[in-house]
Amino acid sequence: MESLPIEVKISILSYLTPADLSQVALLNSHWYSLTCDQELWCKLDVSSIPNVSDEVLNRMITRFPRVTHLTAAVLSSGDPLNVSEECITNVCLSAAPSLRYINFKGNSEIDDDVLSIVVSWCTNLRHIDLSMKINVDDRIMEILNQSSSINSLSLSRCDAITDMGLGTFLEDRSMRHLNTAGILGVKHQSILNLTLYSSKTLVKLILDGGNLTNRDLELLSELKKLQYLEIEYCDEFTEEGYRSLRLLPDLLHLKLSRAFEFTDSSLSEIVESVKLRSLSLVDASCIGNKGLAALSQFGVNLQKLEVSSSYGNTITDVGLCCVLARCQHLRELLLRGIRGASNFVVLIPVCASPHLKYVNLGGCQNIPDATIKTIARLCPHITIHGRFAVLVKPDS
Q1: Would you say the pTM of this structure is higher than 0.85?
Q2: Residue of 68, 63, 62, 1 lying closest to 36 (CA atoms)
């Protein structure tokens, strides 16, 4: 380890958390000097700092001011950060010339005034994540609109935002990433402005489809650089609307939830035109063997397949065997609630798939536990979740 070039050591240390770096710094003076490299502290995650406080954070930003990524998100446990909004503001102002990424996910302590100061000072800001903040509304969108540099925005579950607020923000702005999952206020005007001004730049899009129509899906087909598309609550879309997705030439990842009208014909037309690597169809009750046969024929690059249904569908061993036999790059297979899957499709083709790493068989009632344990024993490299979403371990 001592003989490695300094650049290699720094690269290895970049994978460690602040707590781990603190332990490495105690080894000797050489490793202490390496842990003080500015590059290791350019991505600052407040929640990962042990015993974090205003004093600790202010000391860190004074010593390492060139922060490019700042995360001050509330943990999934819901425990608040032991840092004041004044301290977060000071960190942002100190790092303003270099700061490009901010994550305030779930942190409702960051109010309008703080966000306004941060946006006005951080002129190179590219991405901001305000997901699950309960106080995000059109006033926040007006503040964000003051910055012309923001081209990546996550607003998941910020359901107080309206179509007018988001639509105004998207006007004359070339976006690269946008996440508005759980925002029913997203309607036609937002989609129209997105396609008008971001058709050549948008790469990733996550939407709530609750108030969207086939016309909006047709507009999305203008996003020619789009690689990742996820739409929740596709209840209002029909087969005619889904067909327009075949016009997205660069699409690699597609996820549709509650896609009740997504049929074999829709899937066939899309996979024939688009080279998908990941496909997730949640509650796709109209998908059957014909659609999977088309997927197996054209989806040779497919690495992840998720098909689930709470209401039943016509998928059987025949369709699943086609996919497993031809999609040789498949790494993840999720068949939740697929009652037509049985011993045959699971035991033989799954074991024969060379790159398969993860299988989820939750709700597949016709696959007994004995079969699942056999797979776990024959294929120890595959992580398997059984019928009740429980991790299955092979018998000793």
Answers
A1: yes
A2: 63
